[in-house]
Structure formats: C-alpha cells, structure tokens
TrEMBL record:
Its cofactor is pyridoxal 5'-phosphate. Keywords: Cytoplasm, Protein biosynthesis, Pyridoxal phosphate, Selenium, Transferase. It comes from the Bacteria. PANTHER family: L-SERYL-TRNA(SEC) SELENIUM TRANSFERASE (PTHR32328). It comes from Loigolactobacillus bifermentans DSM 20003. Converts seryl-tRNA(Sec) to selenocysteinyl-tRNA(Sec) required for selenoprotein biosynthesis. GO terms for biological process: conversion of seryl-tRNAsec to selenocys-tRNAsec; selenocysteine incorporation. It catalyses: L-seryl-tRNA(Sec) + selenophosphate + H(+) = L-selenocysteinyl-tRNA(Sec) + phosphate. Its EC number is 2.9.1.1. This is L-seryl-tRNA(Sec) selenium transferase. Belongs to the SelA family.
Length: 462
C-alpha cells in the first residue's frame, strides 16, 4: 500500500507544468513556487512513511501548493475592514489617515523629496522643519519636535531634562500602556530617578511640595488617558502644579498621551485636556500622532524653546527620528486643521467619533436592507455602544447602531472566523449568538466588501 502511494505522488515536473502552478509562477516567481512544490512533496513523503494512507492526487497537491505559496508570497500586513466600532483600534492600526492626503503622500512616497534639502537656500535642511510651523501654529508652542511615538517622546524629554535627577509624579499616574510598557520604567530608562508621591486614589499639591529637594529635576504629570479613576479620588490641576514647579525654578512636564487638539464637548463627549490649553501651564507637553489627532504614529514634543531645542541636539534624537512617510502623513494631516469648518469631514477619526445617532441609524437601515437581499440571512439592527479606543476617553462609550446577522448555514463564531480569515479580512463582533457589525467604523466601501463576502459564503454553502 505504501509503495502504491509513493508511486501515485505526482512528479515535480508534472506539478510545475500544471496550469494553476504556472499561474502562481507568473504571479509570485519561479523560485518561490519551485521551493514550495519541493516542500509539499517532501511533506507528503514523510506522511506516507509515517503511515498516512491519504491518496496524493494532483488536485489535492495543487491546492496545498496554492495555499502555501499564498501564505509565503502574500503581504502579512494588509487591509482590514473594522466592523468593531472601536475607532482607534490599536490592534487594527489606530487612526485611519484621511483620503484627502492620499495624493500628497503618494507623490513623496514614490519619488524623491526635499526631506533634508532647503530648496530656497540650495543647501542641507532639517527634516523636522516640515511640521514645525504647523505644530507651533496649532498648539501655540514655542518649539516642537517629532519622534517615532509618545513613549519615545517622554524618554527623550527625560533624558534631556532630568539626567540623574528626581522626577516627582503621583502614584495615581504611574500608568501602564500597551504591551506592558510602564511609566516608571520609561522614567528610569530616560535617566530620571522616580519619586512617587500621594496615594493611588488621591494626591494633593502638598504631596508634591513636600517631595521637592535640591535633587529634584522636574515635576511630571501623566494624563490617565487609558483609564478613569472615580469615587473617592483627587488629582492636582496642571495650573496648580505649574505654579508650584515654577516657584521652585523647576520645569513641569505633561505627558498627555492621546493628545486632543479640538474640543469635542459640543458633540456630547466628556471634557479632555486640550494641547493648547495645557501648554499655557506646562513647560513641555508630549502626545501621540495616531490617536485623537488622526494622523500617523508619532510622538510630538511641544513646549518652551529652551527645552525643546536641547532635545533637538540630543544624540538620542537620531535613534528616535521619523522617516519621510511619517512626516508627510503628519504634515498633510496637520494642514487639514487649518480649515476648521471641514475638519470633522476631512479627518476620519474625528468624523467617526462625532457621528450623530441619526446618521448612524440611517446607515444601519440602508446596510440592513441590502443584506436582506442575500439568501438565508436573518438581519436586523439594534442600538449598541462603541468605544473611542486607543487609550482615549476611558470609561466612556458612544451610542451606536449594530447590524446583526445570523444564518442557518453557519454558527455566529464560524461566520465570524470565515470573514476574519478571508480576503479582505473583516473583523466584527459576536454577541448573543449573532454576528454584529458596528456601522460607526464602516464606510460605504466597507459595506460593499462585507456584502460581497457574505454573498460568496452563503451562495457557496446554500
């Protein structure tokens, strides 16, 4: 039996000459496909030796070769449809860049640029100059610097300003961000000596004042943007900390994390500290580019010139610098802030967060009506809740509408898996044995993609 199975294995040349494998060669290249075919044949021989009695048909091997080549040759990082309703979904790439910046981005990405070339002076320029004016204008800061993320920004600030000096921070603000990165560790890695004050739930101004000594280098305030403390809790306002720090000739550093540039309270969201307001009191502020700002991943340092200019000459800045793609996306996004009347329309993050219930309801009804045209689907729409995500507006949810789908052909978990593992990948929710699509994070194009994928699935198995 074993010899018969070995004899039944298609020859290498037979597999390479099959139409499907030839197509793979045209798409992915001969070398990758040949190595994959060899690997599949070796695997089959090992399985037969181990006693596997599955018949190695040409069709079966070609299918395995196609799957293996796609896994090796296709992009690992790819487009995903976000139907979760989490606007700044860290696992799905956080902020969606504005379509309005696409042309500018492509021109710089696929050609040469004046990244570090001063066209007017015909000499070497500074890459940070491209975003400097806009950030100063929008935040009101004397000077700014962009690095690769906010954790890097905090580290650079501390490395520059408080080497081997104490940094006073409230115990209630010793936050942990994604992937177990913690503020205390960032402080010590940045060269500072951590000095905790107050209690977990309450810190008073006098706690900071009593902790100040001749070895104090700075006061640090950390905005708890990824959690909210309620009940018997109290923290010190930035204005009060500023007054205390400056009375002792110390700088105040404020890590704002998510970094909000426009007030969203008129749209029903709770108050969050605004960069421009916090800079009235703090000497240096740091925040992210890919959260509420709605741009690419970046850490933005804004503040007084005497401090920020020192950071520009810190050797660590070279290791933390951003490339032309980040700077292009950030500058183009910042340009959108120059037109406040169209800001919510042009910045997807802000548009999704501020959508009205009426807009969401209309979207859900339209989407539901189109899904009802597909066979075997039971579809409805219900009220639900979305999250801003990305460590922004913690503990606050946004009212939304969910389109729910069930079918006798699949369980909710199997339908979710089929969509998530398909192309394009569609990430949705499963609750109460229903597949749920939150329309807050869906575009018209996303709707079309979901409808097409569901049509393929129910048509195939109907």
């Amino acid at each position: 039996m074993k010899q018969n199975l070995f004899a039944a294995l298609p020859a290498m040349n037979t597999l390479m000459q099959s139409p499907a494998v030839k197509t793979l060669c045209d798409q992915y290249g001969y070398t990758l496909v040949k190595h994959t075919v060899q690997h599949v044949l070796t695997h089959w021989r090992s399985q037969i030796k181990a006693g596997d009695e599955t018949e190695p048909t040409l069709a079966l091997l070609v299918q395995q070769i196609q799957t293996a080549v796609h896994e090796k040759g296709d992009m690992s990082l790819r487009h995903v449809v976000n139907a979760t309703g989490v606007v700044l979904h860290t696992n799905l790439g956080r902020a969606v860049l504005s379509p309005a910046i696409r042309d500018t981005f492509e021109q710089v990405a696929f050609g040469y640029s004046n990244l570090e070339y001063n066209l007017a002076e015909k000499q070497r320029g500074q890459r940070y100059h491209h975003t400097e004016r806009l950030l100063q204008e929008i935040t009101g800061a004397e000077s700014v610097l962009v690095v690769n993320n906010n954790a890097a920004a905090v580290m650079l600030v501390l490395d520059t300003m408080v080497q081997q000096q104490e940094v006073i921070v409230s115990r209630g603000e010793l936050v942990e961000i994604g992937d177990s990165f913690r503020i205390p560790d960032i402080i010590t890695r940045g060269g500072g000596l951590l000095k905790e004050v107050g209690a977990t739930n309450k810190t008073h101004l006098y706690d900071y004042e009593r902790a100040i000594t001749e070895t104090t280098g700075a006061l640090l305030k950390v905005h708890t943007s990824n959690y909210r403390m309620v009940g018997f809790a109290e923290s010190v306002a930035t204005a009060d900390l500023s007054q205390l720090a400056h009375a002792h000739h110390l700088p105040l550093i404020n890590d704002l994390g998510s970094g909000l540039l426009v007030d969203l309270q008129p749209y029903g969201l709770p108050a969050e500290p605004l960069i421009k307001e916090e800079l009235k009191y703090a000497d240096v502020v740091t925040f992210s580019g890919d959260k509420l700002l709605g741009g690419p991943q970046a850490g933005i340092i804004a503040g007084k010139k005497e401090y920020v200019d020192q950071m520009k000459h810190n050797q660590l800045t070279r290791a933390l610098r951003v490339d032309k793609l980040t700077l292009t996306a950030l500058e183009a996004t910042l340009h959108l802030y120059q037109n406040p009347d169209k800001l919510l329309e042009n910045v997807p993050t802000l548009r999704m967060i501020t959508q009205s219930e009426a807009t969401l309801a209309n979207h859900a009804v339209d989407f539901m009506q189109r899904l009802l045209e597909l066979p075997t689907l039971q579809v409805s729409h219900i009220k639900g809740e979305s999250q801003v995500g990305g460590g922004s507006f913690p503990g606050y949810t946004l009212p939304t509408y969910l389109v729910t789908v069930t079918t006798p052909l699949y369980s909710a978990t199997k339908l979710e898996a089929a969509l998530r593992l398909g192309k394009p990948a569609i990430v949705a929710r499963v609750e109460n044995d229903q597949l749920q699509f939150d329309v807050r994070t869906l575009t018209a194009t996303d709707d079309e993609l979901i409808i097409q994928r569901l049509k393929e699935l129910v048509s195939r198995d109907a």
